[in-house]
C-alpha cells in the first residue's frame, strides 16, 4: 500500500505488499527467528550469516528484519524493531545507504567482489552497522568466493554479511565454516492456507476453504508462490469463485484430479489413459503428474499401513482425508509402495525432458501391471517358459519310485515336441547359497536346470536356451562339485547332466582333474559349441580336436548370454600351409 503512494497507478504484488515488517509476522520459521532475536538483543550478533532454505520461505525478508533490528534507534523490549525511526523507514522503503542488497546471480564475478571489498572498509553513513545482503550466493564463481574469503573471515566491526541461498551444498565449505548457518524450512500447507485466507478476505474475496487449500498445495511450501497464485485468482474473480476455476487456472494436476485418475487406474481399461491425456491437454506437465501421484500414493500407503492416526500429520483437507481413508485399502500395500517408487524414479526423468506421451503410457501400463500381477514361479527355477523346460524321457513320477513304467508315445512326441516331465524341487537346498560365494558361475548353472530323481539316479536337465550353463558343468572340477552336492543331499547316487540330445554321466572324478571325458551323444557336425572326441577316442584332425575346458566368465558376461539367448564361440586358428600339422598332432605318429 505504501507503494501506491509513491507512484500513481503503480501496482505492488501481494507478496511485497504483505511482506512481514516484524519478526512476529514471520510464519513457519520460529527457530530461526528465535536464534536471531536472541543474538541481536544480547548485543552479540554474528559477523556473517548464511540463510539456506527453499524458495519463498522468508530468507530475504528475515535478512531485512535483522538489518532493521541492528540499526533501529528505539528497539522494543520484545526484540522487535520500532518501524518508526528513520533507519527502519529507510530500510522498509529500500532507501537505506547502509543496507546493500546484491544479487549473486548477476554480480557473480571477481570484479564485483573486488569492488565490494573496496567499500567494506568505509564507515556506515548514518547507521550503526553496514549490512551486505547477498542473495543466491551459491551463484558466485570460485574466484569470487576466494576473493571474498578473507574479508568474510575478518570484516570490520561495523559490517555484517547476510548470505541467502537455496542450494547451500554449492557454497564452498571454506565460506560456510566462517558463517553462522541458519536453516529455513518449507512452510506447512495449513499455515499457508490460513494466511492466504486472511489476505484474500482483506482483498475482498470470499472463497471456499477448498480453494485456499488448493492454492496452498500448489504453492508447495513457498509463501511467495502461494500469494502469486492468489493474485492470479483474484484477477479472475467474478461472483462465486469455485474450486474448478482454480484448477482450470493452474492447468490441472490438483489433488482432486489425482484422485479421479487413481479411481480410473483402479477400474482399469482405457479410462486411465484417457484421463492422463486429458490432464496433459489442460497443461499438466509430466513432472507435476508424477509428483501428484507420488504424494497421493504416499498418503494412501501410510493410512493403509498405520491407520487413521497418520491423517493428523498429513497436509489434507477434510474431503481429501475422507478420500484417503475410504480408498487406502483399495490397493495392496506392496502395490502402493511400488507405485511410489515408480513415481519417484519418473520425476527425475521428467525433469530431463521426458515427453508427455511417454510418461502417460508408462504410468498407465505400470498401474495395469499392478492390477494383473504375473504368476510367480517356484524358487530355485529359471524364469523360462514351459517350452524352455527340457524333460528327461523315460523318467517316472517321483511319487511312484521303484515302479518303472515305459511311457507311451503321445501325439506331441510323434510330432517331435517333448512333453514336460515331473521335476522335483532342487535337492541341494541351502548348499547352493554357500556355493554362490565360492563359485557363483557353477551355482548359477545349477539354478537354471531342472532336476529329476528316479531309482537312485539324478538327472540334471539344462535347457537348450542355456547351453553355456551345460558347458560350465562339464569340466572335472565342476563334476566333482556336483557329485559332492548330490551325495551330501541324497546319499550314494549317480548323476547325469543333459542338454537336449547331449548328456554326460557325472562320476566322481579326481578333484582338480579338468578332463571332461566323452559325451553320450555324438554332436552334429558344426553344431555343438565345443567339438568332442569321437567314439573311437582318436582325434580326427586339429579341427575336430576338443579344446580345453570352457573358461569361466564373469557374471556380467553370463547375464548377457542368458538375456540374449546367445552362445559363446571359441575361435581357433586353422592349421594351414604356413603352419603344417605334424604327424604327432594328426595322431599318426
What descriptors fit this protein?
5-stranded parallel beta sheet, 44% helix, 9 strands, 25 helices, alpha/beta, 589 residues, Rossmann fold, Helicase, Ruva Protein, domain 3, Zinc Finger, Delta Prime, domain 3, disordered C terminus
Structural class label: alpha/beta
Shape: elongated
Major sheet size, sense and barrel closure: 5 strands, parallel
* Number of spatially distinct domains: 4
Which strand order does the major sheet show? 2-3-4-1-5
The Rg value, from CA coordinates, equals 38 Å
Query: Helical proportion?
Result: 40-55%
Summed up, the helix count is: 25
Strand content: 5-15%
- Detail the poorly predicted runs: 1-8, 373-424, 509-518, 520-551, 579-589
Strand elements, count? 9
Task: Give the terminus-to-terminus CA distance.
Answer: 111 Å
Report the average pLDDT across residues: 76
Amino acid at each position: 500500500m505504501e507503494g501506491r503512494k509513491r507512484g500513481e497507478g503503480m501496482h505492488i504484488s501481494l507478496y511485497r505488499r504483505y511482506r512481514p515488517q516484524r519478526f512476529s509476522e514471520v510464519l513457519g520459521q520460529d527457530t530461526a527467528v528465535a536464534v536471531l532475536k536472541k543474538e541481536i538483543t544480547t548485543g552479540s550478533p554474528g559477523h556473517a550469516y548464511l540463510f539456506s532454505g527453499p524458495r519463498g520461505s522468508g530468507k530475504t525478508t528475515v535478512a531485512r528484519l535483522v538489518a532493521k533490528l541492528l540499526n533501529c534507534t528505539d528497539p522494543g523490549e520484545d526484540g522487535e524493531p520500532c518501524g518508526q525511526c528513520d533507519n527502519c523507514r529507510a530500510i522498509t522503503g529500500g532507501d537505506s545507504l547502509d543496507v546493500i542488497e546484491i544479487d549473486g546471480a548477476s554480480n557473480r564475478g571477481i570484479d564485483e567482489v573486488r569492488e565490494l571489498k573496496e567499500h567494506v572498509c568505509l564507515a556506515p553513513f548514518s547507521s550503526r552497522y553496514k549490512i551486505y545482503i547477498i542473495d543466491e550466493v551459491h551463484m558466485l564463481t570460485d574466484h569470487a568466493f576466494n576473493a571474498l574469503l578473507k574479508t568474510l573471515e575478518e570484516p570490520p566491526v561495523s559490517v555484517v554479511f547476510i548470505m541467502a541461498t537455496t542450494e547451500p551444498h554449492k557454497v564452498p565449505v571454506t565460506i560456510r565454516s566462517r558463517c553462522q548457518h541458519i536453516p529455513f524450512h518449507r512452510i506447512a500447507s495449513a499455515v499457508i492456507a490460513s494466511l492466504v485466507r486472511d489476505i484474500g478476505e482483506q482483498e475482498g474475496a470470499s472463497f471456499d476453504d477448498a480453494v485456499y487449500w488448493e492454492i496452498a498445495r500448489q504453492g508447495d511450501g513457498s509463501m511467495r508462490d502461494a500469494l502469486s497464485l492468489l493474485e492470479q485468482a483474484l484477477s479472475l474473480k467474478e461472483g462465486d469463485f469455485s474450486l474448478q476455476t482454480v484448477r482450470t487456472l493452474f492447468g490441472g494436476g490438483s489433488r482432486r484430479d489425482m484422485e479421479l485418475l487413481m479411481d480410473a487406474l483402479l477400474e482399469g481399461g482405457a479410462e486411465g489413459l484417457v484421463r492422463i491425456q486429458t490432464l496433459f491437454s489442460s497443461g499438466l506437465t509430466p513432472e507435476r503428474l508424477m509428483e501428484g501421484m507420488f504424494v497421493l500414493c504416499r498418503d494412501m500407503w501410510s493410512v493403509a499401513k498405520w491407520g487413521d492416526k497418520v491423517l493428523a500429520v498429513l497436509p489434507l483437507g477434510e474431503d481429501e482425508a475422507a478420500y484417503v481413508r475410504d480408498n487406502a485399502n483399495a490397493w495392496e500395500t506392496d502395490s502402493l509402495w511400488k507405485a511410489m517408487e515408480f513415481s519417484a524414479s519418473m520425476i527425475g526423468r521428467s525433469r530431463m525432458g521426458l515427453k508427455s506421451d511417454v510418461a502417460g503410457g508408462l504410468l498407465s501400463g505400470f498401474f495395469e501391471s499392478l492390477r494383473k500381477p504375473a504368476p510367480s514361479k517356484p524358487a530355485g527355477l529359471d524364469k523360462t517358459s514351459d517350452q524352455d523346460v527340457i524333460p528327461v524321457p523315460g523318467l517316472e513320477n517321483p511319487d511312484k519310485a521303484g515302479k518303472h513304467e515305459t511311457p507311451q508315445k503321445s501325439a506331441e512326441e510323434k510330432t517331435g515336441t517333448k512333453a514336460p516331465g515331473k521335476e522335483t524341487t532342487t535337492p541341494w537346498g541351502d548348499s547352493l547359497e554357500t556355493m554362490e560365494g565360492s563359485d557363483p558361475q557353477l551355482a548359477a548353472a545349477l539354478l537354471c536346470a531342472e532336476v529329476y530323481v528316479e531309482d537312485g539316479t539324478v538327472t540334471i536337465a539344462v535347457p537348450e536356451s542355456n547351453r553355456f550353463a551345460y558347458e560350465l558343468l562339464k569340466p572335472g572340477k565342476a563334476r566333482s562339485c556336483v557329485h559332492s552336492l548330490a551325495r551330501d543331499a541324497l546319499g550314494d547316487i549317480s548323476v547325469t547332466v543333459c542338454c537336449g540330445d547331449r548328456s554326460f554321466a557325472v562320476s566322481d572324478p579326481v578333484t582338480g582333474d579338468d578332463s571332461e571325458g566323452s559325451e553320450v551323444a555324438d554332436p552334429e557336425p558344426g553344431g555343438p559349441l565345443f567339438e568332442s572326441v569321437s567314439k573311437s577316442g582318436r582325434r580326427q584332425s586339429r579341427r575336430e580336436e576338443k579344446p580345453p575346458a570352457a573358461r569361466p566368465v564373469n557374471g556380467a558376461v553370463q547375464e548377457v548370454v542368458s538375456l540374449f539367448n546367445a552362445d559363446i564361440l571359441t575361435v581357433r586358428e586353422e592349421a594351414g600351409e604356413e603352419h603344417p600339422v605334424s604327424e604327432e598332432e594328426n595322431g599318426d605318429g
